[in-house]
Design a protein that fits this description.
Helix content: 10-25%
CATH architecture of the largest domain: 3-Layer(aba) Sandwich
CATH superfamily of the largest domain: Nucleotide-binding domain of ferredoxin-NADP reductase (FNR) module
Strand order of the largest sheet: 4-3-7-1-2-6-5
Number of strands: 16
Largest sheet: 7 strands, antiparallel
Low-confidence stretches: none
Strand content: 25-35%
Number of helices: 5
């Protein structure tokens, strides 16, 4: 783990939903696995940091894909090339990278899209299923050019891809492939992941979920990101954010 000041190279919108920030750091880009995250000190006025999933690394370059959801990310979206940030990482437990005799199905929504795109770029993947509210939130094709997998979308308003929730596409996959051949990895809104895990439980499909919590410290000290598991309450920042379906309470 490293904690250092980095200089922003690029920061701007990629579509109507996401912004992308880029910086260089040899220590924060080394031996990164999809699912790990960074803790970023955005506003010098406040002590708390905010967690962001790794979206992509290339050599010393690190990319973060984020959505403007509150004051912190709104401040971050106004940062310009040459501005500095204090960043700590890599943090957390990553997704399982290598699978044996099973097809990787990724189910993503909202802020869960970045780590699963990264995972699909790095590892053999059968399908990447992405749920959004509307067409304006669809990632540009250039952002998915390195994903060698079947990519399907749902939109809540039916303006692109299949209308409805992303779990509709998971149901479609289950009609095409035996559950015995599937491993699911999911990240996104809590309601979406809960539905995915219930489907997985019904069909006895193993998998993993990345649980997004407020991770102020990132090292398990503040206890602000506790997740209910079969082992009891554990800090998501050190014991996760990736957990197996078997160890998660389905009301997490």
């Amino acid at each position: 783990m490293h904690d250092e000041t980095v200089v922003i190279q690029k920061n701007g919108k990629v579509n109507g939903k996401y912004c992308k920030l880029t910086f260089q750091s040899s220590s924060l880009s080394r031996k990164i696995k999809p699912g790990q995250f960074l803790n970023v000190h955005i506003d010098p006025v406040t002590f708390l940091r905010r967690p962001f999933s790794y979206y992509r690394t290339d050599g010393n370059q690190v990319e973060i894909l984020y959505e403007v959801l509150g004051k912190g990310t709104e401040i971050l979206s106004r940062k310009k090339k040459g501005d500095v940030l204090r960043v700590m990482g890599p943090l957390g437990k990553a997704f399982t990278q290598e699978l044996r005799r099973r097809k990787r199905i990724l189910v993503a929504g909202g802020i869960g899209v970045p780590p699963l795109v990264f995972l699909a770029e790095r590892n053999p993947t059968h399908a990447l299923l992405i749920g959004t509210k509307t067409k304006d939130e669809i990632l540009p094709k250039r952002e998915l050019k390195n994903v060698k997998a079947q990519i399907e979308y749902t939109t809540n308003d039916g303006s692109y891809g299949t209308e409805g929730n992303v779990t509709v596409l998971l149901g479609k996959i289950l009609k095409e492939i035996s559950p015995k051949e599937i491993f699911i990895q999911t990240c996104g809104p809590r309601v979406m992941m809960k539905t995915v895990m219930k489907i997985a439980k019904r069909y006895k499909i193993p998998g993993e979920a990345s649980i997004d919590q407020s991770m102020a410290c990132g090292v398990g000290a503040c206890l602000g990101c506790m997740v209910k598991t079969t082992r009891g309450l554990v800090p998501s920042c050190t014991e996760g954010p990736v957990f197996s379906f078997e160890e998660l309470d389905y009301d997490c």
